[in-house]
Structure formats: C-alpha cells, structure tokens
C-alpha cells in the first residue's frame, strides 16, 4: 500500500529553503519522493542545499533556483524555470519572510512597515496566483503558507510582523473559498519560537531563554525539522481534506 504521506511524482517549490524551516521542509518532502525546488535570494546557498539533497536522494531530486520574494519578475522567472526544468508545480510553500523592525509600532518607519507587508503577504499572493492556473487545470494542488503564532496575538516588539502573519491566515481562508472547488487546498502552518536565524534576536539571549524554558509547557524552543511534518501532511493525501486552516506547531506556547 502507498503511504498517505507519499509525494512521489510531485513538484514542490519552497521559498526561503536554503536554511531553517524552509530547508527542513524541502529535505523532508524529498524524503517522501517529491522533486523540490530550493529557492532563496542567493544562488550559491541554494546550490549547496540542492547538492546535499541530490547526494542523499539521487540526481534531479532538488533544483536550485534563486529568487527574491520582493521582486515579482523574479518570482515569475522562478515559476517559469520550474515548469521548464522540473515540471508543473503541485505544491507551493511560501516560507520566506522578513522582519526588519524590533520594537513598538510607534517607532517603525513607513518603509519598514510596507516591506513587512510586501514580503510577508503580497509576495505570497503573487507566487500563489502564478501557480494556481495549473493547479486548477489539473484539479489538484497544495498551497502552504508558513505563518506564525504571532498572527494569533499581539506583541510589543514584532507587532507589524504579527499583523502580516495574521493576514497570511486570512489569505489561505479566502483561497480555500475561492479554489477549494477545484481540489486545491490552502493552509497555514503557525510555528512558535523556532531556532532559526530569522528568530535569533528572540532566542539568542540567555535571560530570555531561561524565562522561556521555565514557563513553556515543553521547556524548550522548537527545531526547524519539527515543522516539516506538518508541511508534508498538508501537501500529501494525508491532508487532502484539510483546507483553509492554520495548524499551530508551537509545543504548547499558545495554550
């Protein structure tokens, strides 16, 4: 019998996949048989990750295509090259994001505010709309947006980021309504504090970590690979009737 989590024959594009959560998702989708497109801003970083995946799972499993999520033409090229070099996109994981500001919203510049919304919401909309026509035509597709538990609550330090992540949750809800009839599913994963470079300012502080590890239900922060299972679930037959949802993966932080 074929595993419910099998992704053989599927093509997955994962943004921000040269490190952290995105890399873990790409690696685990490759384990399940998907051909994965590794994408981030720097081609050499993408090449390195693709080479490791290909060494482990065979040539052609991973393809490296650099693209900046802030550039619509770059995303268009990412999709065009994926179709030409790998195949039609069955799974898209919008993982790349930015947070250039730490502090109250009263201190954020207009430029930084716009950058957060553009990179964390608008770029996701762009990429999803680029791959949707093919998914609709084939009556099959999985859209996964990596949001954050920040979208479920307020913050004194990353408020604008939280706003953008709440918008991502609504983005997938609306997509579910619009394209669910075509057997295309759209869902969010909402990580808690995960040990990634992007979240370094939150975890690379002994006092913060002591306080966090004392109060957190599991007494620790998460690791990138602990997000990958949720992504594989949502991309596979195992998650074929999950649509418009936000799956919280935070070890119990929000409870």
Give a short synopsis of this structure:
The longest helix is centred in the middle third of the chain and has 29 residues, at 110-138.
The shape is globular
Radius of gyration: 17 Å
What average pLDDT do the residues reach?
A: 95
Number of domains: 1
**How much helical structure, as a percent, in the residues?**
40-55%
Query: What structural class is derived from the secondary structure elements?
Result: alpha/beta
Q: What is the H/E string? A: EHEHEHEHEHEHHHE
Number of strands: 7
For the termini, the CA-CA separation is: 37 Å
Biggest sheet details: 7 strands, parallel
Unreliable residue stretches: none
Oligomeric state as shown: single chain
**CATH A-level architecture:** 3-Layer(aba) Sandwich
Strands ordered across the widest β-sheet: 3-2-1-4-5-6-7
Number of helices: 8
Approximate strand percentage: 5-15%
* Relevant CATH superfamily: NAD(P)-binding Rossmann-like Domain
The CATH C-level name is Alpha Beta
CATH topology, which one? Rossmann fold
Question: What can you see in these coordinates?
Answer:
The protein has about 260 residues and is an alpha/beta fold. It has one domain (about 10-250): NAD(P)-binding Rossmann-like Domain (Rossmann fold, 3-Layer(aba) Sandwich). It has helices at about 20-30, 45-55, 70-85, 110-140, 160-180, 200-205, 205-215, 225-235; strands at about 10-15, 35-40, 60-65, 90-95, 140-145, 185-190, 245-250. The protein has a 7-stranded parallel sheet, sandwiched between helices. α1 (about 20-30) packs across α8 (about 225-235) and α4 (about 110-140) runs parallel beside α5 (about 160-180). The protein starts with 10 loop residues before the first strand and ends in a 6-residue tail after the last strand. The relative contact order is 0.15.
């Amino acid at each position: 019998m074929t595993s419910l989590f099998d992704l053989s024959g599927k093509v997955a594009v994962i943004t921000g996949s040269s490190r952290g959560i995105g890399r873990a998702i790409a690696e685990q989708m490759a384990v399940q048989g998907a051909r994965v497109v590794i994408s981030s801003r720097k081609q050499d970083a993408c090449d390195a990750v693709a080479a490791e995946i290909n060494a482990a799972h065979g040539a052609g499993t991973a393809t490296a295509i650099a693209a900046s999520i802030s550039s619509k033409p770059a995303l268009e090229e990412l999709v065009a090259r994926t179709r030409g070099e790998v195949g039609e996109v069955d799974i898209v994981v919008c993982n790349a994001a930015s947070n250039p500001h730490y502090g109250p919203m009263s201190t954020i510049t207009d430029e930084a505010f716009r950058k957060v919304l553009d990179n964390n919401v608008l770029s996701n909309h762009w990429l999803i709309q680029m791959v949707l026509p093919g998914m609709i035509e084939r009556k099959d597709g999985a859209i996964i947006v990596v949001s954050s538990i920040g979208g479920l609550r307020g913050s004194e330090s990353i408020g604008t980021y939280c706003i953008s992540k709440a918008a991502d949750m609504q983005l997938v809800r609306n997509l579910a309504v619009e394209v669910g009839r075509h057997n295309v599913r759209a869902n969010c994963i909402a990580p808690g504090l995960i040990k990634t470079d992007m979240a370094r300012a939150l975890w690379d502080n002994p006092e913060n970590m002591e306080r966090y590890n004392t109060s957190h239900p599991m007494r620790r922060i998460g690791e990138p690979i602990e997000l990958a299972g949720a992504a594989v679930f949502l991309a596979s037959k195992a998650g074929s009737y999950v649509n418009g949802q936000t799956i919280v993966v935070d070890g119990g932080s929000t409870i």
